[in-house]
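Incident review: delayed structure delivery

Summary: a single-chain prediction request sat in the queue longer than the usual turnaround. Root cause was a stuck worker, restarted by the on-call engineer. No data loss occurred. The affected request and its eventual output are reproduced below so the record is complete for anyone auditing the incident later.

Affected input:
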Amino acid sequence: MDAIPEATGETSALIRSLRDPACYDHPAGPVRVIETHISWILLTGEFAYKIKKPLDLGFLDFSSLGKRLHACCDEVQLNRRLAPDIYLDVVPIAGTPAAPHVNGTGETFEYAVKMREFPPDATLDRLDAAGALRPRHVEAVATALARFHLERCARAAPDSAWGSPEAIWRPVAQNFAQIAPRLDDPVDRAQLDALQRWSETAHARLAPLMAARKRDGFVRECHGDLHLGNIAWVDDRPLIFDCIEFNPELRWIDIQSETAFCYMDLLQRGHADWAWLFLNVWLERTGDYAGVALLRYYAVYRALVRAKVNAIRIGQTGGADRDAALADVRSLLRLATTLTQPLPLRLDITHGLSGSGKTTVTRQRMQVPGAIRLRSNIERKRLAGLDALARSGSGVGEHLYAADATRQTYDHLAALADALLGAGWPVIVDATFIARWQRDLLREIARTREVPFHILDFDVPVDVLRERIVERARAGGDASEADLSVLQHQIDSEDRLGDDEQADRVTIEA
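Output delivered after worker restart:
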């Protein structure tokens, strides 16, 4: 269904009336109103109130008071998972639209979600517009999201309606159905048609993986609307708010679909390097490399979700606002089209002793030109069921670092690299690769996949390596457990690059 008028005479009068501080049961300053395509938010100073528009858009239905109340209650309950100090209560609005009383007595004619107010300019989209967004913000969001997905998201039951290939396709198809009637330009329509054909083909190819992901527990009760406008920076940490409460099908999703939204949003804002950073940090913490085969499909879907929102705005606004909404639709269609194109593939591995700067340099290269990075220090511990920063207490050649554990680690890195390349993603593997067999293992994958192969060679003086290792141990916070005895063992056992490896060698000044 299409939208019913989003502001009837009564609702327009209500929003005008609620600008009066006297309508509230607490001291309020000048009231500021923020309007989205589905709600109004009234900022009063200490508290904010969110009122849902009486809409039926098909994917949401707020057309009756009872439905709006139900959605308000769900919004508070669900958002407390990520923002418990912000979402306070659902409050009635009594009186009349011309003379309303928030949390007042008498017959209730509307409801609002009551929230603790935070500065509206603290959202990451506004920080970005002000030039204040930084990599530390992006990293913190990825870390918080990974923790949420691993620890707080309920998993869909195997027999539930959510997360099946059919359920995944419905909102994808709905995007095309709702955008198309709002596009008048034949060029725009042709671009949308091409995206629909690509999505249909990709969905058919990926459907078996989608079904397996549901069986394996990767369909979870997520946030559902994770773009920069729904993340704020408050008290020096990310505050993720405004999850989807109105449609469980859009919330019970694969965690890769959630990640794809923020990844896509960073790309749309011209931050490809931070999109790669966000993705890599999230992957390192979740270990969900197998799901990356779905990410490009979901990123296209998410771009079209935002295109749909802006297409709806085209019909709700006029003048410069309408022109801006149309420009956003076209920009998002272009991004979605770009996302359907193959990425230039490569397989890079590092070669260097502990402390040579591999992780620092590969962090840069995973952002520009961009790649998915695999780190032996993290994957070795993941195989043992340990956190990345955990200390295993293993000595040289013992336990996690015994020959069989090392073989298992490199086999695992090779398998991950192979799968990621097969899914269309460039890869960097960060490990010492001091043994020839380790390098040959990855070279063979590059040869089989017919992608460029590079050995990033770190040649650093031993005295510098020793200084770095001591300093790293003193600082803490690194996944590496290498100490001076490990370094000496590496020096004694290293297989230097052979003459036949020189053609693949890229010297790194570190």
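Verification: The first strand starts at residue 32 and ends at 35.
Action items: add queue-age alerting; document worker restart procedure.
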